[in-house]
Amino acid sequence: MANTSNENAVAEAVKRLKSLAEEIEDMSIEFSTPVTADEVAQLEKKFKLKLPPSYVHFISTYGTFKVLHGGRELIGMEEPGFLRAAAPDPSDAVNGDDPEVEGAINQALFFQRADDDAVDNFWCFNPRDVTPEGELGVVGYYHDEAFDLSPRLGTEDAEHFRDFSAHIVRVIDALIENFAEA
Known about the structure:
The chain is an alpha+beta fold. The protein has helices spanning 4-23, 37-47, 53-61, 99-107, 164-181, and strands spanning 27-31, 65-69, 72-77, 109-113, 122-130, 136-141.
């Protein structure tokens, strides 16, 4: 079951994002149609992986979204059916010819570009790092850095575990902060 305080934090972040789009000239937000429970079940069957509850709540409530400014996509989410299709070619990654790196890229679910479509940098779910509640850790893929899906839970690095709710709130707040500084 999803955490109500996380759901409230996400709802507030979405409100802040919509307010920003109303205040900034030539900024818009496009939301897709929310997914149904049947569509979630089909996605989980397709990917052979239970999707994180916080992500399922988001796409079931809001759909996916992208923020455009001056016609350029600033942030956006991949459509749920393309979570694996969005994955970069392992040969584009540092050490991408390493079977472990290639295996990690092929297991990850890439749900959001970290910047515009010109650069292959993504945020993805780490299916090797899952909480008892089914949340998957969110990690970044940057084409010019080595890629790793090491589990953080159960290690001293566990405090850096970030689920989808925490991630999307952080991304939205960083975008808002960037425009506040401009």
